Fold:
Amino acid sequence: MTDLARAPSDKTSWRTGHADRVLPVLVVLLVIVGIWYLAAIGMNAEWVRDQAARADEDLTSGEFLRRTLILDRPVLPAPHQVASGLWDGIFGQKITSKRSLIYHGWITLSATLAGFAIGSLAGVVLAVGIVHNRAMDQSVMPWAVASQTVPILAIAPMVIVVFASAGITGLLPKAIIAAWLSFFPVLVGMVKGLRTPDAMQLDLMRSWNASDRQVFWRLRLPSSLPFLFASLKVAVAAALVGTIVGELPAGASAGLGARLLSGSYYGQTIQIWAALLAAATLAAILVALIGMIQKATLEHMGLAR
Amino acid sequence: MKPVSRQEFRREMMPTLLAAPFLILAAAIAPPLFPVVLLWLIAWTLNVAMTSLNLPFARVLTPIIFGATLLLIWELSCRIFAIPSVILPPPSQIGISVLQNAAILWTDFVQTILKGALTGWLMGAVAAVMTAIAIDRSPFLQRGLLPIGNFVAALPIVGIAPILVMWFGFDWQSKAAVVVVMVFFPILVNMVAGLAATDQMQRDQMATWAAPYWQSLWKLRMPAAMPFLFNGLKITSTLALIGAIVAEFFGSPTKGMGFRISTAVGRLDLPLVWAEILVAAIAGTLFYGIVALLEKKVTFWHPSQRNKRA
Structure:
């Protein structure tokens, strides 16, 4: 963040730069966890007080606090309860078990990846068409931009139900929603990227008598890559959200979204929070993976800054 | 743009000429497809001709022709293949459903968009701007909160909908709460970047005039942050609608767009579902359009706005 952080030649200053970045994040995280504990105590207090009054117990304040943090179905589970729920879901179950978060996470992940692959491929192909064909540009682009303002995600459960009534269930309907959601960011980003070469660069290609194909492979495509990666990051997160929302309608029995829904039906708050955290981790891993591929590619091409 | 040369026109037509044999072949295999294929070819050729000759109004007309063609093809295919309206109702049936259910659609619009989405969006935006101004004075907080904010902005936040519905009840308050959480971080991240967008020279100028913190904030840094703020506001306008509708799937009173969509799907009343989707689409576009219009009024001085007018 500071200039020190950008001086890799000097090891000590790099170290301080690193600490400069990590320390504030850690402090803020600690504060958040602290607030979370306070909120958990506050929100669960009423329930504990009720229970104690019903059992005619007189709780000391220490015992009272302890009980607010160990409820089975707390209004707000304490961080350590969520952590243990997450730990149990990931490592405490067999992978094939219906209670394993790995099992549900894999179902969600496979649909997300399938949809993401289809959607971004379609986005890239259509972007290439739009850049090379004026009629396509003027007909499709306004609708693509307008479609960004439509809450597509909200109709995802309906798509699932309609497909189910046609007898198609499982991975495909969810993947279609994920593809649809990841399609537009990639399309818009890629069109922008393919158009970044300015008149000077295009003229240079022209003076070398480059064919359309050569201009595409040697100039347009390489200069579009930074834009492509930026929109791929958005797209993969959108694909995951789409898949999870696609798992919401009743009938879906597997996947992180189904886990959220069943948790909310039965008031299993710890299960909801654990599924939520698992989804967040998955999103973070996917975005980080694309970030790593981006870094490696751009460095290889000498585009990294 | 000038009209293209004859050679370029031929190149523009190439995809159409290449696709035509396949389309005609498809029509030969399935004869009922013929009118659909013919319609598509005529409309597309018209569009190519219009954009190539660069006729006046081509920029407006081509997308309209394209959209209308898609609608017509949808309608035709539904009729020709007798697709049951349970799977895909034709546009005409959806239009009739909109007219018949206007009263229901309006109550749902008020419940979900005006009460749930708009209230939540406004509260989230105000909270995010205040937080941004608050943490702007502390570089430590900025370095701590920004990575977390960026991280949270990429998360599937709709997932907290069931929790917030549990806490705030079934009515619009819980939907507004979901929207607040969803829009908070994208706006915060944009606003913090916006407040940092002034350069040293400008800030020095303020210092030279002995402007106190609040004055320099109000007269220099807030206006400079506006393009960034509006970027965040535009992104989140769609998020707000999504949050409000999805939250209704987890429990709602007997009105609201999400509620209507899920119950109408249960009754296989697909035209009503599509009518709700149409309303959501129009509301989303209007919402975005109004924010973009405000942006134009507020940031008229910004290069991106000035270039558009020229």
